[in-house]
Write a structure and sequence with these properties.
The chain is of the alpha+beta class. Helix content is about 60%, strand content about 15%. The protein starts with a helix and ends with a helix.
Length: about 180
């Protein structure tokens, strides 16, 4: 089904808007995938906040012209599915994870931070933990020294508390014995 001029302009505008707010573009050839597999891939992409779309390559080249994703224009040939994401790793991760389970989806390349990525670059980008995981790791690193300091302080307080109790118990019997001797005189 061919698109008329207005529909093509709308597609280019939509993809341009996605490209403007995205950090990553991942491209994959979907030749041989069934509709069921594509629907599953789209569902996973939606859940992760990835804009996934099958586009005509000429329209995709027009849409990314003047954006940091223009460097990927050379890899835009053949039946491709385009994944754009605001998260730096989400698009690469969705496509890479799906390609691991389905050999008919072949990663072709992508772009990140104005640099073109080959298939290995997309896979490497996909192996980076997500933003939430990285933030949790940083929080754990920041919490660790404070937690250790609190543990050391608690151990010191416990030691001093045990030492004070021992001193009090050593002094208490001697104090009780002194008054008993005094009345004998």
């Amino acid at each position: 089904m061919s698109l008329n001029r207005n529909e093509k302009a709308a597609v280019v505008a939509d993809v341009s808007a996605q490209a403007a707010k995205s950090q990553t573009l991942a491209l994959a050839e979907y030749r041989g995938l069934t509709v069921e597999h594509l629907n599953k891939l789209r569902k996973e992409a939606r859940e992760k906040g990835v804009y996934l779309h099958v586009l005509k390559n000429t329209l995709a080249r027009r849409a990314v012209a003047g954006t940091p994703f223009e460097v990927a224009a050379e890899t835009m040939s053949g039946p491709l599915i385009y994944g754009f994401s605001e998260d730096a790793v989400a698009a690469a991760k969705v496509i890479s994870d799906f390609a691991k389970g389905n050999d008919k989806l072949v990663i072709k390349g992508g772009a990140y931070a104005g640099k073109a990525l080959n298939a290995d670059g997309v896979k490497a980008l996909a192996s980076i933990p997500s933003r939430e995981v990285l933030l949790a790791q940083i929080a754990g690193l920041l919490k660790s020294p404070v937690q250790r300091l609190a543990g050391v302080m608690a151990a010191l307080a416990e030691q001093r508390g045990a030492g004070a109790v021992a001193e009090e118990s050593a002094e208490a019997p001697a104090a009780d014995a002194a008054p008993a001797e005094a009345p004998a005189a």
